[in-house]
Amino acid sequence: MPTSSSTDRSTAATMRAAVLTGIGVENLRIVDLPVPEPAPGWVRIKVMAFGLNRSEYHSVTGQAEGMTLPRVLGIEAVGVVDLDPDGTLAPGAQVATLMGGMGRIFDGGYAQYTVVPSEQVIPFSSDLPWEVIGSVPETLQTAHGSLTTGLDLQPGQSLLVRGGTSALGLAAAALAAEKGCRVYATSRRPEGCELLASRGITALLDDGSVAPQVREAEPNGVHAALELVGVPALRDTLAATAVHGTVCFSGMLSDAWAIPEFYPLEWLPFGVRLTAYSGGAESLPAAELQRVLDAIASGTLDLLPIHAYPLEDIARAQRDMAAGTHIGKLVGLPW
Question: What pTM value is reported for the model?
Answer without folding.
Answer: 0.93
